[in-house]
Write the structure tokens for this entry.
Amino acid sequence: MGEIIKVLDTIEFAGGKFDVELNHGVNSTEEREIHIQNKSMRLAMPEHEFLQIASAIVLAKKQLDIIKEKDK
């Protein structure tokens, strides 16, 4: 595991609190990692994968808002 660069945020999800951390890669040639973790679990992924997932979630939220607006 790499060293923590910065705690980006703390989020509440599914009844628990999770820290979102930006970390150095294991060695100097590896990409930075994002860790989403709490005392019970940790999800680690390369920064580019996190950005893809985060973008997909934002897009899905916007699409859901559009669908809900049409149903009014």
User: Anything to note?
Assistant: The longest strand covers residues 4-13. Residues 4-70 form one domain. Residues 47-70 form the longest helix (24 residues).
